Amino acid sequence: MVTFKPASEWRGRVDSEEGVGAARWHQKVSLAPHLPVGRSVGILGFACDAGVLRNKGRPGAAAGPDALRRQLGGLAWHGGDDLSVTDLGTVEVGGDGLEQGQEELATRVAEALTSVSRLLVVGGGHETAWGSFSGLAKVYDPTATRIGIINLDAHFDLRMKGGQGASSGTPFTQIAEHCGQDFFHYCCLGLARTSNTSSLFDRARAMGVSYREDRDMQVADIPDVIKQVREFSQGMDMLYLTIDLDVLPHYQAPGVSAPAARGVALEVVQAVIDEVQQIAMTLPYGMPLVEICELNPEFDESGVTAKTAALLADTLLCQNCRS
User: Which reaction(s) does the protein catalyse, per the Swiss-Prot or TrEMBL entry (predicted)?
Assistant: First the structure.
């Protein structure tokens, strides 16, 4: 069963004694259907465990969207006075209603992209990506608009569908099948070799995927990583950035379906995001869609994964507005 939960009021600390410059995120959020005048970014949740369960992972990411909102609400606001945030609510998937949930997410994404300058979708497992991309494809035809997909992830997520159908491990295979080989542009950064079989590496190479393993994404490797991102982005009309939090080391992101033994340091992840955002500003259609997946509060010691996700969300939605 799939339902939709409208956005609810954000709460957090109020520093009224500090004056107008002491705003926090929760004070800048409007609730759909109200859309503020001027520049606005949006947040849409996808509360789903079905994809992770089908992929034999540990469930709990359905609680991720609300956990991220709680952490994000208390962060200091540095987006300026001319940027506002709209919470567009959450698509909730009960039981095994994955495909129906992804269809609903696609519809909501397509609607949102007509009203906000950038949409952040918060999963859920990485099955979120198929729903998100499907919505993007409703607005921008991937056979006419070159969409560069950049995935920060410990996994390719290029699995073939099994007996249960799609899962959190199949979204980019589904995207490739939808677009066709000539229109599938995919870069996966942060792969854990021991978490991806040889057949997945073979499939990625056959599909022309640009990728880099976590062991080659140390701080000293940042210049090479940036070069790879720039080369991949050449000729693209837009970028779609999706972040699976399991790309981070286990101590930075314990609250995910599959914590990473090595992972990619937050400093390197941040450098990639910064570069992607700069590149997007030069492209015809920029980067209208971004995504954060796999936040699992049930296993999140001290809330560190949610805090990290909130930091990344703040970067994705406000960074270009900072003074």
Answer: N-formimidoyl-L-glutamate + H2O = formamide + L-glutamate
What domain range is 214 assigned to? 2-321
Contact 207, 186 (CB under 8 A): yes
AA identity, residue 15: D
Query: Which CA distances in Å does 155 have to 77, 109, 205?
Result: 33, 24, 14
Are 291 and 128 contacting, i.e. CB atoms less than 8 angstroms apart? yes
Identify whether the C-beta of residue 84 lies closer than 8 Å to the C-beta of residue 36: yes
Give the integer Cα–Cα distance in Å for 29 and 159.
37
Q: In sequence order, what DSSP letters do the residues of 141-163 get, joined into one string?
A: -TTTS-EEEEEE-SS---PPPBT
Contacts with 181 (C-beta within 8 Å, 6 or more apart), sequence order? 207, 208
Total number of domains constituting the chain:
1
Coil, strand or helix: which one is 12? coil
Cβ contact 292:314 at 8 Å: no
Residue indicated by tokens 């940036």: 226
pTM higher than 0.70 for the full model?
A: yes
DSSP letter for 240, please.
E
Q: What SS3 state is found at 303? A: helix
CB atoms within 10 A of CB 207: 15
What residues are designated binding site for Mn(2+)? 126, 153, 155, 157, 244, 246
The two beta strands, 2-5 and 83-93, are antiparallel
Q: Output the domain CATH number for residue 250.
A: 3.40.800.10
List the chain pLDDT tens, one digit each, 323 residues: 999 999 999 988 888 787 677 889 999 999 988 766 667 899 999 999 999 999 999 999 999 999 999 999 999 999 888 898 999 999 999 999 999 999 999 999 999 999 999 999 999 999 999 999 999 999 999 999 999 999 999 999 999 998 889 999 999 999 999 999 999 999 999 999 999 999 999 999 999 999 999 999 999 999 999 999 999 999 999 999 999 999 999 999 999 999 999 999 999 999 999 999 999 999 999 999 999 999 999 999 899 999 999 999 999 998 754 33
Q: Which two tokens stand for residue 27?
A: 């004070």
